[in-house]
Amino acid sequence: MGGDAIDRATERLQALRDGADDAATSAALERARRQLEAFAETAASLEASLPATVGEALRDGLRAETLPVARQLAEVRGLQSQVLRRLERLEGEIAAERHARVDDLALLVDLVASGWRSVNERLARLEEAIAGPAVSSQKIRPRLRRDHDDFPARLSDDPSRSGPHQAKPGAAAA
Predict the structure, then answer these.
(1) Phi, psi values for residue 78, rounded to 5°
(2) 38 phi and psi, to 5 degrees?
(3) Which residue, 21, 33, 64, 160, is the most exposed by fewest CB within 10 angstroms?
(4) Hey, where are the domains in the chain?
(5) Are the C-beta atoms of 161 and 153 separated by less than 8 Å?
(6) How many C-beta atoms lie closer than 10 Å to residue 154's C-beta?
(7) Measured in whole angstroms, how far is the alpha carbon of residue 148 from the centre of its chain?
(8) 169 — phi, psi (to 5°)?
(9) How far is it, in rounded angstroms, from Cα 28 to Cα 22?
(10) 168 CB-near residues (< 8 Å, 6+ apart)
């Protein structure tokens, strides 16, 4: 069987050499040329249309994928601007509140200062009323300060440190 195939192939090659199958060979060559031309046309049309088709497919894909991202990005930008507006509003409110507290503190300081002034005025009037019209309040104040400077010493048990208002230990019995 293997020898028969070889013999037939040898006979065909011999026939081709002799030109016996010229018509069949020409037909086969013509068919091959037409198929090559068709293949070349198909390759040329693919070469011309493939970049445009691929480009269009890429644009469509990118458009489909980037549209949601663009929407989300726009939403994030909107939220960011909203947060900035709120922060600016809070900053303004805090500044106004701080100024109001400073004003309240200034008023409180003025009230305390005027209260102490009125206490000083009352003490001066009392000192004048106690001392009488002949003694001025400026003469009384140094004496009061002097009497109050040794206040802790007057509370001690040491008789040498006792103030003018404390009784002497021997004077209590008399």
Answers:
(1) -65, -45
(2) -65, -40
(3) 160
(4) 23-154
(5) yes
(6) 15
(7) 61
(8) -60, -35
(9) 10
(10) 159, 162
CB neighbourhood size of 21 (10 A): 14
Identity (one letter) of the amino acid at 92? G
Structure tokens, 117: 């002034």
Nearest to 153 by CA among 168, 143, 166: 166
pTM: 0.37
Question: In whole angstroms, what is the distance from residue 15 CA to residue 8 CA?
Answer: 10
Closest listed residue to residue 164, CA positions, set 135, 151, 139: 151
Cα separation, 42 vs 109, whole angstroms: 97
Q: Are residues 118 and 130 in contact, defined by beta-carbon separation less than 8 angstroms?
A: no
